[in-house]
Design a protein that fits this description.
The protein is of the alpha/beta class. The protein has 2 domains: 4-165, NAD(P)-binding Rossmann-like Domain (Rossmann fold, 3-Layer(aba) Sandwich); 171-293, Orthogonal Bundle (N-(1-d-carboxylethyl)-l-norvaline Dehydrogenase, domain 2), CATH 1.10.1040.10. Helix content is 54%, strand content 13%. The chain is built from 14 helices and 9 strands. The strands form 2 sheets. It has a 6-stranded parallel beta sheet. Helix 7 links the parallel strand 8 (135-140) and strand 9. Helix 8 crosses helix 10 (216-227). The radius of gyration is 20 Å and the shape is globular.
């Protein structure tokens, strides 16, 4: 049933996830809003090109997607030429985009009305994790559908876990982004302090990564943070979208998230200095840009 798989959205994540599917031997049909990218993907990986989500989904047992935000997922599923209009009865749609649990629940109802299973499956691990097939996938939805899709998910995921009913994957991703926001700001602050102290940053990172201050962030992001290169990874615009979801879910539960709210503002500052598409480690660019000692020197 899942030998023929369709993938919608060939961005930083989707390009690499669908490439892993092709390498694993799946017969992959791809759709991207900008068709030039889809043509380039086909030239590199083979497979079939579709011009709309509906065309991509026709006859597919499994449709996967990784696009931008809530409205984008709505557009590719229930919008004009959306995938739900052509998916066969009993087929499965798994969305890897980070969106709100509320949107997920509403789409699951639309899917059920169309005789389709809809599962939420946000991911963690970034483009590098997708390239290496080691993404963490947090799923919400029926166990049977997850087992049917598992061979496809295993082509790009190392940790594939059902977190509960539909929406539970996104609720877990909310927690992930709360943890990431504070950790990354702290890492940037620490590295900035090291930079200003005149320490050898490579030595600092090397020793700290072996102790309590070590983290995935430190291991994977410190080299580019030091270099001040942000043209890769996870866009600030997308993180602001995610933190918007976190803060909105927290308001519903009457939970205070002071650090998350502060980092959200800091990422707003990064957007203001032109970094909307920079990786979120550009929180360091904000520290360097608004350096208070330089302000005093002025
Ligand atoms: N990058 C990461 O490290 C990372 C990690 C975990 C989760 N995520 C999440 O995964 C999702 C994708 O992230 P990304 O970094 O791959 O983003 P990206 O590089 O900006 O790619 C977004 C993709 O979605 C497509 N798209 C957007 N809106 C669309 C619409 N209305 N209809 C059809 N296609 C649409 C874009 O098509 P075009 O090419 O035509 O613009 C592009 O292919 C986001 O929700 C993000 O929060 C990202």
């Amino acid at each position: 049933m899942t030998d023929r798989v369709s993938f919608l959205g060939l961005g930083a994540m989707g390009w690499n996830m669908s490439a892993r599917l092709a390498k694993a031997g799946f017969n992959v049909t791809v759709y991207n809003r900008n068709p030039t990218k889809a043509e380039a993907w086909i030239a590199e990986h083979g497979g079939t090109l579709a011009h709309t989500p509906a065309e991509a989904a026709e006859g597919a047992g499994l449709v996967l997607s990784c696009v931008g935000a809530d409205d984008d997922v709505i557009e590719i599923t229930v919008g004009p030429n959306g995938a739900f209009s052509t998916m066969p009865t009993g087929s499965i749609f798994i969305d890897h985009t980070t969106i709100s649990p509320t949107t997920v629940q509403s789409l699951a109802v639309d899917a059920a009305n169309a005789g389709i299973e809809f599962l939420d499956a946000p991911v963690s691990g970034g483009p590098k994790g997708a390239i290496n097939g080691i993404l963490t996938i947090m799923l919400g939805g029926p166990k049977a559908a997850i087992e049917t899709a598992r061979p496809a998910l295993e082509s790009y995921g190392a940790e594939i876990r059902r977190m509960g009913n539909v929406g539970a994957g996104q609720s877990t991703k909310v927690i992930s982004q709360i943890c990431v926001a504070g950790l990354l700001q702290s890492l940037c602050e620490g590295m900035y302090m090291a930079e200003r102290s005149g320490l050898d940053i490579d030595e600092v990172v090397s020793i700290l990564s072996k102790g309590a201050a070590g983290s995935w962030m430190m291991n994977n992001q410190s080299a580019t943070i030091k270099a001040g290169t942000y043209d890769h990874g996870f866009a600030v615009d997308w993180m602001r979208k995610d933190l918007g979801i976190c803060l909105s879910e927290a308001r519903k539960l009457k939970v205070d998230l002071p650090v998350t709210a502060l980092v959200d503002q800091f990422l707003g500052d990064v957007q203001d200095i032109g970094g909307g598409r920079w990786d979120i480690s550009s929180l360091m660019a904000r520290l360097r840009h608004f350096d208070s000692s330089k302000a005093i020197d002025l």
